[in-house]
User: Fold this.
Amino acid sequence: MGPLTTILRVPLYISLWVFAAVLLILTSVRLNYTLHLPKGDPLNGGADFLDPIVAHLLVCSLLSLGSIPFVMHWVPPLITSAASANLFELAALSVIWLLWLVGCVVSTSIWPNLVFCYQFEPCRILSAMMAFAWLGWIVLVGLIVLAVVNAVQKARPARSPLMVEWAAQSTFARPGSAGSGVPRGWEVV
Assistant:
């Protein structure tokens, strides 16, 4: 991994974990509120309920926090190849990115404008929850871009040409050699 991607990657992961931790706290507070509504609360007629999208955001934050041991290499690497590890990181980030995106979009579609209820604490918690969900998603976009840049750098050395004659190094390119596809004696001379 290049020094530039490392310099950018570490702060992005740290900010993702901070946003995920804050989102975990906010979603826990929201779930506690909706599952134990106080008597006389006008929300949902005073009946307890579960916000599925809040539970979804809780799972997203837990998955993001669960990536800490893998990124910090506290867990022995299961994949020894650097290119494969980078592709695994890219795939994992893509799945988490998609989950965060679904959570952000659905929560924003349910609560598009909460200005009318800022005087109530549950409303401010919802607003902060959506803000940290979007911030975490933006950080995930940055991490995916860095993972793609890193994958491209690993696939092609920096000073190599974009188009490489891959067949020039194999036996396939030499007529009459084993594996060339042309039987011996049939070569064009």
Summary: Residues 42 and 68 are 40 Å apart (CA to CA). The radius of gyration is 25 Å.
